[in-house]
Amino acid sequence: GEFKDVKISHSEIKTLQKNLIISHSAGVGNYIPDVIVRSMILLRINSLANGHSGVRIELLNKLIEIFNKKIIPLIPSRGSVGSSGDLAPLSHLALSLFGLGNAKDGNINDNKIYTVKQLFEKYKIKPLELEAKEGLALINGTQYMNSYLAKCVYDSINLAKLFDIAGVMSLEALRGTDKAFNEKIQSVRPHKGQINSAYNFRKLINGSQILISHKNCGKVQDAYSLRCMPQVHGAVKDTINFVKDTTEMEMNSVTDNPIIFPDDETYFEGGNFHGEPLALAADYLAIAMSELGNISERRVARLVDGNLSDLPRFLTKNGGLNSGLMIAQYTAAALVSENKVLCHPASVDSIPTSANQEDHNSMGSISARKCYDVINNLKNIVAIEFLCAAQGIDFLSPLKSGTGIQFAFEFIRDYVPHISDDIIVSDYIAEMKKTIFDEKFISGIEKLTGELKI
Q1: Using CA atoms, how far apart are residues 39 and 188, in angstroms rounded to an integer?
Q2: Whether domain 146-449 has CATH 1.20.120.420
Q3: What pTM was estimated for this model as a whole?
Q4: How high is the pLDDT of residue 357?
Q5: How far apart are CA 224 and CA 216, in angstroms?
Q6: With 50 labelled, which of 57, 240, 420, 446 sits at a CA distance of 20 to 30 A?
Q7: Closest C-alpha to 377, from 292, 299, 318
Q8: What is the arithmetic mean of pLDDT over 30-36?
Q9: Confidence of residue 10 (pLDDT cuts 50, 70, 90)
Q10: What are the extents of the domains in the chain?
């Protein structure tokens, strides 16, 4: 930064390392989720282990010890501008090496806050004194935004499958056609995600009695939210795969500065800490994933609209006395609208820092954190679609859905019953979310359909 030309005497090297970390621990806001913190530690270890950061093996071993003993430093979520590394969040993480700061004990599920010193004493961990370059190596990196993005990619892969399943269940409940999933249509516009999505839909609906029952109903084609699922869901899958590649590349990269090449005893000042690749990827993923919420909410709206669905209005037989799932669609609409605000790209912004020495910043930390919020909203949106689609399928009994959808429906009904009279809908949404994110849900479907493609 601005102090790049200031020379530090050898006798003050150790003081400099500690001062860097203490002074840069300037974050504010809610604490980062535990899973993100542990990912940050793991990715920091992996980056430093490449051998280009000028740190001792003792430093790596201390980070490994903190990770293995499940000490989770409390790291404020705001304060990084996504360039010069995630300085503030990584500084709060590095404080723990000195036995400073606060933390949770990951071995005890009590959410109690301890001082790091207390946990070091409990688990017999000795603080580490840093040597030259080690302070800078610890805080100069992209592990905050990389950890958020890795979690977003992981969740996006599961969500892409869940939205495929929910979409086909809605199509069954709405007595739509599978003609738009025909392989020939996809072959003349062969985007990989589109091809894979149509493949998933055909597998999920295969063997459907509902589909056969209305084959000669006179409908020519379905609304876009059903008919264009291969194109929309497919484009999202292509985005997920692009972002996954970027995220994995970053996980295994060296992202601090300067970078040391011990084989020929050279070093270079550069910009591998700059978060632009992650900033753009996080904004891209948030925008793409929000589209799954958009199209899902449109299917929910059709399911609860008796004029469009030919199902009981708001999916309740005794309408008027009961409101059924009317307000579930409101909730989906609210979440979709919130996601639109969250999808404003942070990466188009830049505010200079460090007296204009760092005059272009990625804001990737904000991109990644917003993407995480979008993903969490989508978990509720897809739960609402399943709640409405399963309710719609009930009204078509005794006809059976396609093999994959029938399994999904029966699995859901083991935990979330049909709604006859008004209930607290929020409780049902929460139970539905818990049910569909049970690993047995997707794995059970895939045993019947084969692996759903991303």
Answers
A1: 42
A2: no
A3: 0.95
A4: 84
A5: 20
A6: 240
A7: 292
A8: 97
A9: confident
A10: 10-141, 146-449
